[in-house]
Amino acid sequence: MRLNLHSYKAALVTLAAMASLIVCLGFTVARLFELEREFRTDAMYANTWYVTQAQFEAAIFAESLARAAGGETFANPEHAPSFRADILISRLAVLLEGPQGRTLEILGVSSDLKQAYLQLTMADDILQGTIDHEAATRLREQIRDLSYKLRDAANRIVWLSREEAVAKRSNYLQVVFESVAYLSGIVLCAAFLMVRLFKGVQEASQAKQLLKQEQELSDLVISNISNQGIVMFDGQLRCLLWNPGMEDLLTIKPDQAVGRRMQDLDRLFAKEDVVGALTRATEGTSSIFEDESATSEGHERCLEINCFPVFMAERKLGIAFIRDVTEQWLARKQAERQNFDLEIKVLQRTAALRQAERRLIAAINSASEGFAAFDWTGKLLFANDQIWAAAPVSLWCREEMSLTAFLQCFAMCEGADRRLVNAQSPFEELEFDLLMKKDTWSRLSLTKADGATIFVRLTDITGYKQVARALESALARERETTNAYRSFVSMVSHQFRTPLAILDSSAQRILRRGAAMTEDELVTRIQKIRNAGTRLTRLVDSVLNAAKLDAGTIELNPASYNLVDLVMDICERQKEVSAQADIRFDVPDLPARVYCDGMLIEQVVVNLLSNAIKYSGNTPVVEIKIWMDGSRAFCSVRDWGIGIPADELPKIFDRFYRARTASGIAGTGIGLNFAQRIMHLHGGEIQVESYEAAGSLFTFDLPIANADQTQQAA
Amino acid sequence: MQRPAAFSSLLVFFGLATLSHAAEPLPPAKGPVILTISGKVDQTNSAAGAQFDREMLETLGRASITTRSEVSSIPQVFDGVPLRAVLERVGAKGNAMRATALNDYVIVIPLEDLQFDPILAMRADNRVLTVRDKGPLWIVYPRDAHKVLQDIRYDSRWVWQLSKLNIE
């Protein structure tokens, strides 16, 4: 394409050069022709000549007239005035007509000449006869004037012709310069064309040489390829080229082959399909085929024949490359045989494998466990019935069953976490214990084999889970008991020791002092002993209560009570014990009938009230509030005492637990625990709200007794 | 142009040589002589050479040329005798002829010019030529018909007031 464009441009440039050459040549020739025309007609010289001739005739005529005036007779009629007058008149006529007439008009002498012409014509009569002296003399003078005028005219013409000559010369010069310019253009164009021609010739000779070299090279290649036969042929299948390789193949020498018909050369080329392929090659269709035949020695031989069309020197030819491929052919045949054997083996193995696979699938299907296999991208390979029957799978996952979808089915089961939702290829190995439905636990495990196949197992572990849970609860209970025991021992060592110490010290004092003791002092001591006893009794009671609760031996005997009365009674009694306490009430006027065990609820209220007083210092203020909300009655006990630290609030209902703000104040850590458990037995709960050094608010709730229960109580 | 010109001149020369012998003797001129042919001629009718009056010339043939001339830029119709016929009549044998006019104008005309078939005109625009208007004989070339004749060399061969021809 580029070459084409280039040659196109070169042709254009050459054409342009030729065109400019022709134009230059044309202009030069035209200018030269113009010059030639000017040279051909040179009017000015002729004009001068006409004028001088006329002047001469005038002079001759004058002379003739002079002779006539002298009375001379003329032997030669050509000397007579009448003849001379005719000649002069013809001369004047020439001057007055045509281009010379115009020139004389320009010079301004034509009117004088016309006048002279007229005078001469009129003098004709005088001239025909014998001229008298006077007339001849007069006419002679006129002719002499004419002669002078003609001389002046000649002068002027010369003067004019010189001017014209100058103009003409400058014009010639211009033409010369122009011609030189055009000539140099011609030279340039011609030089350019010559250069192009030279280059063209050079290129052509180079191309020719290259072609020759290529030809030599291809000849060299063709005649030296001995492992491949190359044969060229024309449309009549006449052999044109037969290389040594062909000689090796068919044992026919090139000089025997070239020029003969291919069919006559060898049996190979006489075959119908070979002839067809060769003919098609000359028609422009290439083909490749193999020919199996036996050699003259009887060996098996296979030849590969490649036929191609060749278009050379306007002739449609064909070329065939022939190669001995017997070895490859034999090897291929061998390979084909082996392949066949191999295929049969593969079929047998495949059948065996199928059987094994069927067995395996049957085994997997009959297993109680769910089993599924996925490939590494998460595509389902196999899943047994137990997998399909698993509750989440049967619910969610029938349609598309990729591993991701499969795992997401299980994401809402208890025991699952984000890993199941986010599982993506490549999948990690996983193991989950999942609650499939109520009381049914399964273990979902995902394992990888060979890094490619992913196996999923779904095992029912409900039994195992139940046993584990029983064991766990037993262990927890055991741990709790141990803890309780430890706490109890620690509590006893603190709480029981103090009253015992008081008892002992009081008894020692009484014993030491004996009779020396006053009555008052003895009463005080005994009172102390009694107080210690009471305290011990209380401790023992609470421990026993706790033990009873633990043993589950406390029985609930619910009945309908008026909560207001119940609480008010307890407060009255409490006031007797601790008179310093200021107990305020905020209770409804109407009775609040609740359904509960009165004895136990009394314990709860006593506990809360005594705690409020105990932890409020010297001037305790306690507010008791009772109200009803819906089907429940609420009772709250508020104090403004030491309060409970926020971090210890969750623990205050633990058995034997005591807040750190309570240290130095007697207590077992059983009371609140006991109260809370009583409330739990009633289906209620003690709520606590407390701030350190600001006070506490304990609230418990009970169900309101319905009409039947109320009546029963009544 | 060059080759046929040379060929026809050769033919003319040959023709002149052959026809001259067959011609009858030239009778003497009866009227005023308007043309005298001298030099290498076979036929003569006086001591001066072959002399012609108007009538004798008119019997030799007629030819007509319409052309412009050096002295006239308007085409004129010239009638007269073919020059060739006149020369043949006197048996001219030469290469050129010296033409002399009444006004003593002299010029040598090569006989090759016969190839252009010039005439001796006696009339211009159907008007008899007198001495006053370039008569009585005027050598006229067919100037418009041949480009080569439009040249001062040929223009000077248009001899008017022709009176003598000397064959050389």
The overall average pLDDT of chain A, rounded, is: 83
Number of helices of chain B: 4
Separation, N- and C-terminal Cα atoms of chain B:
26 Å
Fraction of residues in H or I helices of chain B? 10-25%
What is the strand arrangement across the widest sheet of chain B?
2-1-10-5-6
Shape, per Cα inertia axes of chain B: globular
What does it look like?
The complex is a heterodimer of chains A (714) and B (168). Chain A is of the alpha+beta class. Chain A contains 24 helices and 17 strands. A five-stranded antiparallel β-sheet of chain A has the order 2-1-5-4-3. Chain A has a five-stranded antiparallel β-sheet with strand order 7-6-10-9-8. A five-stranded mixed β-sheet of chain A has the order 12-14-15-17-16. In chain A, a hairpin with a 2-residue loop joins strand 14 and strand 15. In chain A, helix 1 (2-40) runs antiparallel to helix 7, helix 3 packs antiparallel against helix 5 and helix 22 (598-614) packs antiparallel against helix 23 (671-681). With 168 residues, chain B is α+β, with helices and mostly antiparallel strands. Chain B is 23% helix and 34% strand. Chain B is built from four helices and ten strands. Chain B has helices spanning 2-22, 54-59, 83-90, 152-155; strands at residues 33-39, 50-53, 63-69, 72-82, 96-101, 106-110, 119-124, 127-128, 138-140, 162-167. In chain B, the strands form two sheets. Chain B has a five-stranded mixed β-sheet with strand order 2-1-10-5-6. In chain B, strands 3, 4, 7, 8 and 9 form a five-stranded antiparallel β-sheet that branches. In chain B, helix 1 crosses helix 3. Chain B starts with a helix and ends with a strand. The model of chain B is unreliable at 1-22 (pLDDT under 50). The chains are: A alpha+beta (714), B alpha+beta (168). Chains A and B meet through helix 2, helix 3 and helix 4 of A and loops of B.
